[in-house]
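User: ok so my PI wants both of these folded by tonight, can you help

Assistant: No problem, let's get them done. Here's the first:
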Amino acid sequence: MVMPKPVTPTPSLRCHFCEMQRLRGVFALAADKLVVSGPGYQCTFQITGWGWVILLTGLALGAVALAVFLMA
């Protein structure tokens, strides 16, 4: 029985994911408070740290995509 090859994302798709991650990180840093409210309660979350994590992940994904483009 022949097993199918696993599908891997193309370099251009990796760049798209990179840009999405960087935008999410920038938005999380710009609006550092997230307010969730419902009937009778309100919660506020600080998301600045999460913004940095997402931003750095996006930069790492961009570096990987660039390396794949240069190696291809």
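One down. Here's the second:
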Amino acid sequence: MGIAKDVMTGHGFRVAARTILDEKLGFRTDIIEHQLAHAVRDPNGRAYNRTEFLAERHLMMQDWADYLDKLRSEAVLGEVQAQNRM
């Protein structure tokens, strides 16, 4: 992706995604944890939790992709505007 290891790590991307999906995009933490392949705490024990939340995870990942596309578009627009001011 062209980002140096001393700027961002794979784990750093996961942390950022976890935070943004929860705080900015409003997804349930259990669905986020499933997507990140984390063990989800279950009051009945993990042995009884067979949920996958596939439809919700699909929607979440599409919203995540749209969010990233928006950030990229805003960054490109900002660069174009900055170049036009020169």
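The chain has a mean pLDDT of 82. The helical segments are 10-23, 29-35, 54-85. Good luck tonight!
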